[in-house]
Specification:
Length: 67
C-alpha cells in the first residue's frame, strides 16, 4: 500500500464486571502523502474525506520517531 500507514490506537478501559484495567485497540488506515512514517513512530491523524474504501484519515504530523 503506497502512501498508506496502518495506525493502532490503544486505550485503557476498566472491565465492567471484573474491574480490571484492560487494553483495547483499533487499527485504521491513514494517508501518508510523503511516505515519512515508519514502524514504531507516534503520529497524529486527522479525519478527512474518504480517500479509498478504508482510508478516511490522514497523517498530520509525526510526533515522535521510533528509536
Amino acid at each position: 500500500m503506497d502512501k498508506t500507514v496502518v495506525v493502532r490506537i490503544d486505550r485503557k478501559m476498566r472491565h465492567p464486571l471484573y474491574k480490571k484495567t484492560v487494553l483495547r485497540s483499533k487499527k485504521l488506515a491513514a494517508h501518508d502523502e510523503h511516505n515519512e512514517a515508519h514502524v514504531g513512530d507516534v503520529v497524529r491523524v486527522m479525519e478527512t474525506r474518504p480517500l479509498s474504501k478504508t482510508k478516511r484519515w490522514r497523517v498530520v504530523e509525526i510526533v515522535e520517531r521510533a528509536k
